[in-house]
Amino acid sequence: MKKILITQEEVAKRCEELGKELTAVYKNKQPLVVGVLKGAIPFMADIVRYMDTYIELDFMDVSSYGDATVSSGEVKIVKDLDTNVKGRDMLIVEDIIDSGRTLKYLVDLFKYRQANSVAIVTLLDKPKGRVVGIEADYIGFDVPNEFVVGYGLDFAERYRNLPYVGVLKSSIYETKV
Ligand SMILES: O=P(O)(O)OC[C@H]1O[C@H](OP(=O)(O)OP(=O)(O)O)[C@H](O)[C@@H]1O
Ligand code: HPA
Ligand SMILES: [Mg+2]
Fold first, then answer.
1. Across all residues in the chain, what is the average pLDDT?
2. Domain count, the chain
3. Rounded Cα distance, 103 and 106, in Å
4. What's the pLDDT at 130?
5. Can you spell out the DSSP letters for 112-131?
6. Any idea what the CATH number is for the domain that residue 25 is in?
7. Does any ligand 2 atom lie closer than 6 A to the CB of residue 96?
8. Which among 26, 91, 94, 133 could bridge 122 via Cys, Cβ 3.0 to 4.6 Å?
9. Ligand 2 contacts CB of residue 148 (under 6 A)
């Protein structure tokens, strides 16, 4: 690791704050909380435990990065929701908004499917990476314009299990073995 950007303690504290804030927002709404596989899993698991209201969970797997550090620009559905979203209040949970393509695609899709409302909570926001216009409603932390890993975020499927968010040494990005 070249540097740690957000420590395990900082992530834990922010998850508690966001979960409590979302409890108040979704009181009496029974939102469909949608985790975007695979990166959102640790963050989703941590915030929903602080959402003290009725919620439902579902998952969507979309992919645009593969093993690269730069988005291919094309979003592909790998696994769709099991739930009919018509009339539902939806909360999309993401690990990061970078180019914005993944979330733009999902928000447009859920609106097309006639969700009642679509909000976004993301652990990380990388505003300098943005290519399409989309913003999250709830943000854990801003990160600089570098490829980050940990707490769900991978480089070539590795490092998702790190309990903190950091930047790898450049030699690792250059030669993956
Ligand atoms: O704003 P964007 O440029 O679209 O990037 C953000 C998306 O890219 C990553 O997913 P990835 O496709 O790597 O899938 P993963 O979660 O399985 O790693 C990340 O988890 C977000 O879903
Ligand atoms: O900085 C990043 N790290 C890991 N995965 C990502 N997907 C988009 N941006 C990133
Ligand atoms: Mg990835």
1. 94
2. 1
3. 5
4. 96
5. HTT-SEEEEEEEEE-GGG-S
6. 3.40.50.2020
7. yes
8. 94
9. yes
Q: Which residue's CA is the nearest one to ligand 2's atom 8?
A: 98
ipTM above 0.95, yes or no: yes
- Catalytic residues, by residue number, are 98
Q: How far is the CA of 148 from the centre of ligand 2 (A)?
A: 6
Could you read off the pLDDT of 54-70 as tens digits, one per residue? 999 999 999 876 666 66
- Dihedral over Cα of 74, 130, 135, 56: its sign: positive
Cis peptide upstream of residue 128 (ω within 30 degrees of 0): no
Closest residue (by CA) to atom 10 of ligand 1? 63
Lining ligand 1 with CB less than 6 A are: 36-39, 63-65, 71, 94-102, 154
Name which of 92, 104, 119 is nearest 37 in CA terms.
92
Atom of ligand 1 nearest to the CA of 157: 18
Residue 176: is its pLDDT beyond 70?
no
Domain encompassing residue 169: 3-174
Q: What SS3 class is residue 26?
A: helix
| Closest to 57 (Cα-Cα) out of 87, 93, 29 | 93
